[in-house]
Design a protein that fits this description.
Elements lengths: L7 E4 L8 H18 L4 E4 L7 H15 L11 E7 L3 H4 L4 H16 L4 E6 L14 H10 L4 E5 L8 H18 L2 E4 L7 H18 L36
Parallel strand pairs: 1-2, 3-4, 3-5, 5-6
């Protein structure tokens, strides 16, 4: 890029929400890579888009497609589980990750006119003694079964593509547990290939380019409004714990 004369670039981070691992760490890695390469390129990050109208529209469309796999007469009986990647509780306390997820879920539920939903988490890792965001999708399925719920739509709202964490955690583990519990589980698609998501990407890039040129821009957002282009220095601050050496 430097050899081609590039002085400025935009980074589109494929995470809709703000957190250390989903936002700030990307910026830190970009700075580190730029410094290690010894280049002088200003690389700016496009704002998070958890409540962008087109992001909500893409999610709502995929949720509707998932609900359509149930009999029309049963749709009102379907419980929706919005699934996102769990993060350590300590990380969550320094960012708006859980709050933004909750807003996204509420906006999708409002758009689809389906009020029965729950935000759940998956893919947690790390030592068992460390607190992570809950409930886990599998624990939630057990709770639903105890409440007499037999039909569940799982929508991976925290992810943008159907990668291995979706395939294993939801399509394999959660599906197997649902079968044991007598629950019919449908997993809807992530939004990465939805046309509304693609248009949102283009719009966000054009928005930022025009903003940096000093032009007046529309910053579409629902709910709590648009996130800033540049986060504060303390935003999503978190120091990951270092593993302790094993006792001899």
């Amino acid at each position: 890029m430097q050899n081609d004369g590039i002085k400025k670039a935009l980074a589109f981070v494929t995470s809709a929400y703000g957190s250390y691992s989903g936002c700030r760490q990307y910026t830190e890695d970009i700075i580190r890579a730029r410094d290690e390469a010894g280049v002088d390129i200003d690389i700016a990050k496009v704002r998070v888009f958890y409540n962008h109208p087109l992001f909500i529209k893409a999610n709502a469309e995929n949720v509707e497609q998932g609900l359509n796999q149930f009999d029309q007469a049963d749709r009102s009986q379907v419980a929706i589980a919005f699934s996102a990647h769990s993060i350590p509780q300590a990380m969550s306390e320094s960012c708006a990750y859980a709050k933004q997820l909750a807003e996204t879920c509420a906006l999708i539920a409002e758009t689809t006119h389906h009020p029965t939903y729950k935000l759940v988490y998956q893919s947690r890792s790390g030592p068992a003694a460390q607190s992570w965001l809950e409930p886990d999708i599998r624990d939630h399925l057990r709770t639903l079964q105890s409440q007499g719920v037999s039909k569940v739509l799982v929508h991976p709202v925290g992810f943008l593509s159907d990668h291995i964490e979706i395939i294993y955690d939801l399509d394999t583990e959660a599906q197997a547990l649902a079968s044991l519990l007598g629950i019919t589980l449908v997993r809807s698609k992530t939004v990465g290939s939805n046309k509304h998501f693609g248009k949102m990407m283009v719009d966000l890039i054009e928005e930022r380019i025009k903003s940096d040129m000093g032009l007046e821009v529309d910053r579409p957002a629902l709910g709590s409004g648009p996130s800033p282009d540049v986060c504060s220095t303390e935003c999503c601050a978190y120091t990951p714990p270092r593993p302790t050496s094993a006792a001899k």
